[in-house]
């Protein structure tokens, strides 16, 4: 059991775990001076500068008589103001042992060796929260099941909540459901967190009807509208790929007179930002300010990111300055978002200035910072500068990942440097990085763009014979490159292969196919394929409209295409530029 069993502390009084006690029963045999010393010790934390500091228990407690350990954990809140409690030696040993990935039986046997003290109860939940932050769901399940099945502790609602959360994250909704029923059978009273986590579990698995049923159940029990439940609902919808329903739940939240929180608005700003709707993200931010809801650093970073995705660097910088004026200090994520805005706007030296500013302000750049700077130079065609930053990253001790190599590969691919791209590919293999479909698609596209169809076919053969799953992007590249080069028959061969590969043509597939005929001014053939596209349930975008118009050889044809597209635009109620 290595050192884990040697650190059992026998000096503590054996009492019931505090989760099973009321406040009046909280007593130990320690003297007042020892208790005071323990209180001070438990008030220690390490700030972002690495200094040991103290905090006020009353200020940071999650609930009345709570603490940062065990009972104080609350879903959706994380740690207040970035405070992370220092793990006790026992908790650290348990965490280290569990993180080795040992099987559940060994973890259980090790925990069996500890005396059932209050300190162990605290340590176990501190470890569970640390594991949750690291997304180690299997380890959380193992520890919580030990409490339920092997320990002498009486499990409380926090234990069940952690289990529901872990099962939900693993998309094991039936186990999450079973845990909830077990909670009810033990006559443990579910909290708003319980319902929030169960709703999120269903949303992550795409079971929206079940999520709605749980939401209705909270009403039947007379529970008031809770921002925690609403936030979990929206978060689950976003992560479960049902973002279109988030705004509906948000409007329902306001109708129910449930006041949106900072987390609510931050989620929506993120939602609009990722959808390329920076103006809507800004509108949501203004609503937040009008409602006297105070934004935090995550809110500002989400808004900077929203503008960054659209390359609106001036707007991103305005938000950055607003954040500083509000007394918030930018962190590495905020600086990275601002760098990204300059990168996408085509200003690599602007991104480099932000990188230097970050270092000057004492904020250490992370791997993402270097990747963004490599990408910024690559987008601008400055591949030598991109490689210099890539080498700097290695020099400071940051190991390049697949993403790091991909942004460098993209930089040289943009310039058509085949030999250099192949060299980077070999470097990746030597570094032990496993090539994936995305990497091979990039090489496929490079060879196709340069007209090296023999090499393109070689890459396809490697994908088909290896463990790489060719996806719709793979075939879109093949269809587009052969179509643009005028090899219509080969293009059609790949298109006809899609059903046998279990792939469904998307808007890029259809547009690439139409584009091939458009280049030859085969207007009628383009219209036939366009009709096939609509019949297949795939709707055009701006790119489709553009290639259709390019196929036109007179004004009558242009008017016909414009009318069709505008009619479809009205039917779909979406913005389609023509």
- What spatial order of strands do you see in the largest sheet? 1-2
Helix content: 55-70%
Which CATH architecture of one domain would you pick? Answer: Alpha Horseshoe
Alpha plus pi helix count: 30
CATH superfamily of one domain: Tetratricopeptide repeat domain
Strand content: under 5%
Keywords: Repeat
Pfam family, one: PPR_long
InterPro entries: PPR_rpt, PROP1-like_PPR_dom, TPR-like_helical_dom_sf
Organism: Phaseolus vulgaris (Kidney bean)
Index terms:
578 residues; mainly alpha; Serine Threonine Protein Phosphatase 5, Tetratricopeptide repeat; disordered N terminus
Structure at a glance:
This protein has 578 residues and is mainly α. The protein has helices spanning 32-42, 57-60, 89-98, 104-112, 118-133, 137-149, 157-169, 173-185, 192-204, 208-220, 227-239, 246-255, 262-274, 278-290, 297-309, 313-325, 332-345, 348-360, 367-379, 383-395, 402-414, 418-430, 437-449, 453-465, 472-484, 488-497, 507-519, 523-535, 542-551, 555-572; strands spanning 44-46, 52-54. Among the domains are: 260-365, Tetratricopeptide repeat domain (Serine Threonine Protein Phosphatase 5, Tetratricopeptide repeat, Alpha Horseshoe), CATH 1.25.40; 518-573, no CATH class.
């Amino acid at each position: 059991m290595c050192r884990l069993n040697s650190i059992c502390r026998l000096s503590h009084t054996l009492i019931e775990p505090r989760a099973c006690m009321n406040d009046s029963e909280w007593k130990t045999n320690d003297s007042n001076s020892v208790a005071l010393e323990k209180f001070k010790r438990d008030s220690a934390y390490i700030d972002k500068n690495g200094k040991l500091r103290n905090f006020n228990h009353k200020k940071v407690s999650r609930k009345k008589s709570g603490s940062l350990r065990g009972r104080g954990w609350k879903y959706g809140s994380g740690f207040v103001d970035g405070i992370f409690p220092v793990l006790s030696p026992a908790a650290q040993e348990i965490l280290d042992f569990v993180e080795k990935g040992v099987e559940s039986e060994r973890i259980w046997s090790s925990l069996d060796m500890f005396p059932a003290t209050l300190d162990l109860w605290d340590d176990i939940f501190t470890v569970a929260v640390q594991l949750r932050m690291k997304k180690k769901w299997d380890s959380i399940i193992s520890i919580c099941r030990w409490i339920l099945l092997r320990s002498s502790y009486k499990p409380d609602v926090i234990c069940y909540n952690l289990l529901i959360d872990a099962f939900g994250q693993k998309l094991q909704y039936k186990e999450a459901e079973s845990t909830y029923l077990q909670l009810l059978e033990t006559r443990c009273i579910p909290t708003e967190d319980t319902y929030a986590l169960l709703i999120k579990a269903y949303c992550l698995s795409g079971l929206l009807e079940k999520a709605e049923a749980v939401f209705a159940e909270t009403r039947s029990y007379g529970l008031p509208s809770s921002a925690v439940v609403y936030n979990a609902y929206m978060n689950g919808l976003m992560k479960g790929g049902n973002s279109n329903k988030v705004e509906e739940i948000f409007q329902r939240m306001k109708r129910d007179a449930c006041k949106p929180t900072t987390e609510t608005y931050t989620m929506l700003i993120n939602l609009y930002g990722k959808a390329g709707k920076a103006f809507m993200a800004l509108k949501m931010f203004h609503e937040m300010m009008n409602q006297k809801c105070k934004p935090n650093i995550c809110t500002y970073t989400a808004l900077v990111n929203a503008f960054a995705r659209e390359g609106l660097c001036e707007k991103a910088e305005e938000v950055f300055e607003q954040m500083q004026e509000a007394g918030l200090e930018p962190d590495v994520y905020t600086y990275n978002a601002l760098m990204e805005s300059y990168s996408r706007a085509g200003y690599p030296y602007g991104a480099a200035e932000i990188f230097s500013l970050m270092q000057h302000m004492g904020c250490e750049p992370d791997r993402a910072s270097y990747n963004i700077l490599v990408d910024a130079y690559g987008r601008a065609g400055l591949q030598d500068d991109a490689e210099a930053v890539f080498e700097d990253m290695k020099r400071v001790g940051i190991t390049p990942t697949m993403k790091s190599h991909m942004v460098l590969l993209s930089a040289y691919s943009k310039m058509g440097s085949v030999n250099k791209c192949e060299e980077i590919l070999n470097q990746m293999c030597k570094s032990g990085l496993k090539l994936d479909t995305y990497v091979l698609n990039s090489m496929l596209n490079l060879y196709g763009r340069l007209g090296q169809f023999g090499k393109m076919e070689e890459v396809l053969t490697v994908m088909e014979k290896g463990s790489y799953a060719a996806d719709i992007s793979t075939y879109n590249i093949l269809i587009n490159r052969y179509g643009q080069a005028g090899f219509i028959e080969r293009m059609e061969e790949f298109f006809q292969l899609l059903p046998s590969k279990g792939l469904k043509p998307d808007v890029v597939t259809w547009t690439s196919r139409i584009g091939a005929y458009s280049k030859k001014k085969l207007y009628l053939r383009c219209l036939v394929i366009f009709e096939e596209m609509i019949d297949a349930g795939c709707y055009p975008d701006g790119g489709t409209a553009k290639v259709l118009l390019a196929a036109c050889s007179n004004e009558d044809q242009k008017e016909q295409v414009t009318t069709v597209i505008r009619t479809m635009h009205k039917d779909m109620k979406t913005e389609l530029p023509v």
